[in-house]
Amino acid sequence: MAIHDSIFLLIVFSVLILSTAIQLFYYLYFYIAVPLFRHPHDSIFKGPVSVIICARNEEDNLKKYLPFVLKQDYPDYEVIVVNDCSDDASFEILGTYLQQYPHLKVSTVTKDPKFAHNKKFAQFIGIRAAKNDILLFTDADCKPETEKWLEGMVSQFDDKTDFVLGYGGYMRAKGLLNRYIRYDTLTIAMQYLGMAIRGIPYMGVGRNLAYRRSVFFENKGFGSYKGVVSGDDDLFVNSISRKKNTRVEFRKGNHTRSVPSTGLVQWLAQKKRHLSSAPYYKPRDKFLLATEPVSRILLYGSFTILLSFLFLWPVVLALFGLRLIVQFIVFFKVKKNLNEPGLAGFLIFFDIFSPVINGIVYISGKLSKPAKNKWK
To answer: What is the layout of strands, in order, in the sheet containing 256-258?
Structure first.
């Protein structure tokens, strides 16, 4: 072997060691925090709560899933549905539910050709209409796992808590796309829940998120990023949440399940919107979120190169195997916590390609023209 080849392989070997160390740090510090976490004893808080749902042309989902929110086992709560410029049968369906459930309130936004707006405006309308300080957010296509969902999420509030981050998964269906969507959702949750447990909360998902109305208005709501197409939930959490004012709640009975995308184009558009908020995160969070996938790409790349040259192959296999064993153990434990069956056989395949997919989607979003008034 030529000297320059040896130097090159030594450099690649150093990359493998570094990337393996970074991967082990993420799994053994951030991600393992999720299955190791023990929820504190529930608080005695049983105060009034406002559940807020924004909906545009969601007649089928409102009919199927709104009753699960309206039938929660909780003593004092209201449900506010913001019917935002719907031109389907949402108005009639909500009218029927208004007669059945006295704790349901509906705020209707009518179309105005001179005023196009995104979901943030509907969210703001719902927050303004709420009469209670504790707000719990979900979507029209979401179904709480149990009738104790509201109680479970709210149980984490005390005098020092302003945010409660929950888990919002997707419904299980056939097909590779559904498995990837659920894998992607699980790994994102593993990251934001683990980082929050370690004192670095950086985002929440609007499918299952609670915070105080007073904190929203004290911090000027969505004003600082009103021009951003998406990310009203995670950007608000990113800017205001801290170690001392944020708690997590991801026990199985307190999850929500959403209707997943059934087509690749639909999911890619949704993913592009979700990634559009990343540039507005704090520098620390951007660094932590970028380091993991970059180190993963370097790990797989350096492993492939070194193994093809059989360079120190026993050591190379040992390093790769160590990371693989740790990954499987942590992933399986998190999967159990978040109740996401049927993903084990696809872990390595998805793990290799997800950084590439996310990178392509992110770059494509940066290059495409922003849809400033897109609602969802």
So the answer is: 142-144, 256-258, 168-170
Max Cα distance, the chain (Å): 82
Closest to 204 measured CA to CA, from 164, 173, 175? 164
**pLDDT band per the 50, 70, 90 thresholds, residue 116:** low
Residues 332-365 have pLDDT tens digits of 999 999 999 999 889 999 999 999 999 888 888 7
Token couple for 366:
């940066």
Domain chopping of the chain, boundaries: 3-34+284-367, 42-264
Cα separations in angstroms, 351 against 97, 269, 306, 317, 354? 44, 21, 20, 18, 6
CA neighbor of 270 nearest in space, from 175, 185, 165, 171? 185
Indicate the pTM of the whole model. 0.91
Report in angstroms the alpha-carbon separations of 27 from 30, 76, 200, 280, 358: 6, 40, 15, 25, 20
First and final C-alpha spacing in the chain: 57
> What is residue 276's three-state secondary structure?
coil
Structure tokens at 293: 């996938």
Residue 253 backbone phi and psi in degrees, to 5: -70, -10
**Residue whose pair of structure tokens reads 């709640």 in the numeric block:** 249
**Both tokens of residue 216?**
């929203």
pLDDT of 142 reads 96
Give CA–CA dist 134/351, Å, rounded.
37
CATH architecture of 42-264: Alpha-Beta Complex (3.90)
- Mean pLDDT estimate for the chain: 90
Distance, C-alpha 132 to centroid of its chain: 25
DSSP H stretches of helix in the chain: 3-25, 33-36, 59-70, 90-100, 119-129, 149-154, 176-197, 213-218, 232-240, 264-275, 283-308, 313-337, 347-367
pLDDT for res 273: 82
For residues 51 and 166, is the Cβ–Cβ distance under 8 A?
A: no
Task: Count the Cβ atoms, other than its own, within 10 Å of residue 341.
Answer: 9
The whole-number average pLDDT for the span 157-168 is 94
